[in-house]
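Hi R.,

As promised, here are both runs. First protein below:
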Amino acid sequence: MLTNWENFEINYCQMERLYEKKLDRILSTSHILIYITNGEGVLSIDTDTFLFSKGDLLFVPAECTYHLQFKTTSCVDYYFLQFQLYQVKELSVDTYKKVQIKKDSNFLKLFVLQSVNEVQGLMEELLKLERDDKGNNHFLKKAKTATIFHYFMINQQQSNPKDTIIAIEETKKYIENHYADAISTALLAKKAGLSPKYYSQLFKKEFGIGVHDFLTEIRIGKAKELLVKTSDSLRAISTSVGYADEFYLSRVFKKIVGVPPTNYRRKRELRIASYDFSTTGHLLALHIIPYAAPLHPKWTNYYYQHFRDDILIHLNAFRIQSEWESNIQKLSKDKPDQIIAKQDISDEEKQALEGIAPVYYYNFKNRSWKNQLLEIATYIDCEMDAKNFLKVYADKVAETRKLLKEQLEEEKVLVVSLYKNTLVLNRSKTAIDIVYQDLGFSSAQPKEDIQLNEKITLSYLISLNPSYLFLNIRQDMDTINYWEKLKCSKEWNRITAVKNKKIAFIQSDPWHEYSASSHLRVLSNIQEWMMEKVQAY
């Protein structure tokens, strides 16, 4: 908890009342308090997830990657309060310095405070001050913000008794260590000293997953590991992970994973290492889960969230082109059977990779993703899987064009990225492929002028005047600070797409990856955005 409160200062930033069902994953530039007036869903902060519902107060620390997603059936209404927190530190007798507090695990213990209806009135009062045109209410807004944050800090330790939370966490560890034993909710509740019903409720609130689902997740994860790392029979594996027989394991495994355990093992018998993001995307489209691949909760969020337990060796995903030596070391230690990589890596990297295992290089720069997929599929004898994927993709394109027929005819579209203070058109081949070629959107830029990764000025963007923007804001502090200024400028607000609030905020993952899997995910993104009201800012 915070001590010496007199050394801390709060600065009010902004207050809004929002009705959007989804806030895409973004880096927080300030601390945020969100009060849920209506709706329920999931808050993700970095790699953790938290459930919330009506009446809850959510806290997002500064410089965290967060994502807010409401259930589609919810009626959504929430207050969104941004503020900065500083600590005043004494440098000498007469010299002091204000230090901004960011994510500090020493006192920021809780991210969802449940059923705090008292806060709603304070939030409404603060919103009225925000909307008041008078310029003399700064101190009132600051005081209201401090009151709300103080309420959060005082009450977070009282939301659940400390010993109860510790007891629930201990039962989670018990499941992780004794998953092969007979485990029931009654047994776990007894260990926590709670009734089974109350224990189940608190477990789901604390970890975002039910007790039975968590146990199943652990058991199937261990079964996957044994299928890949050992030659044990299904009967032996079922006993090792806590199931009565191999038939029950097979039913549960297929329900969770999508394929029977024998198929899963067969696909994993050859330990293939993916050396980059695009190769991972191609292999997954062929139903091949790499033995090793670059993974990171921010840079490859989708692959990290969905496949981090299946991909056994996690390679470095940050600056992999310049800091590749660490990945060579990992692959040397946990040797794969084969490595697949792009042709355009350095000769030094190639030499190092070839000293570890046989390497297949495919032509990335001069071939379409479809040809890349077919090339890789031919090498690993998965041509039928590639043909099936391409049919699925073609069907998805046709379905999307049908759904968006009216928008296709009306909109003049651009795909823009912002990095620091630089605007870039069509930063990836994926955008050009899908938006202009596969879906046939009309470009606000003359067709003959479309090129990859084109730096442009704001005045040129204004002259193109798109009616719909796909906009990527890079998640670094320099870019975010520039974006905060840009979106308030008169020049930016002259663009038709901005005036009509027709902006879809896109993420680098999957839009900047060029692979089979990323193309399919981008299509799903576009369907979702164009059929709903696009995100306001």
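And here is the second one, sequence first, then its structure tokens:
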Amino acid sequence: MPTPNALLAVAGASLIAWGDARTPCVIEPTVEIVPAVRQLAAARSRIAALEAENAELKSQAASPLPQPAVAVEPVVPATEITWRTDLATAAAEAAQAGRPLLVHVTQENCAPCVRLRAFWRVPNIVRWHRHFVCVKATPEQAAELGVRSTPTTVVLMGRRELRRFGVVRSEAHYARELQAAYLAAKAAK
């Protein structure tokens, strides 16, 4: 049995409600009750429609995306520099690709080198390195390039040295050095 005073139905012009747990009573509707019941019914139907729309959107989101008709190369985020360790192989790759060769000479126990290596994880710096074929030089390779201190960065186009710089003071300074090296390589082509 419904709870006391629970609204059950609208029957013609009269409203049937349970006055107490045993006996129903008929109440004449007031002007305020009937529009409120209609608004409640409209709101419930709107909620049902929104829930159905929401369920449809969820099912669409769960379905796999259509595959493109043409193969698309995946976008690789700028999070890591691709390093080479062999100078001769990297120089051949740079010549074939028409890109400049960027040679970094660093040491493990050098404070400015540690700061430079920290910049290699910064997305803006990583993006600048994508314009170059990057090499981490060994001490023997550094001697061939005439490097006497660390850190030193040498930019080569073929066998021609375009730019050389050492300690970088900040991320912005390093980005400016890489930009200048890139522009020098572009002008040398």
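A quick note on the second one: Strands lie at 7-11, 14-18, 24-27, 83-84, 101-105, 133-136, 152-157, 160-165. Let me know what you think.

Best,
J.
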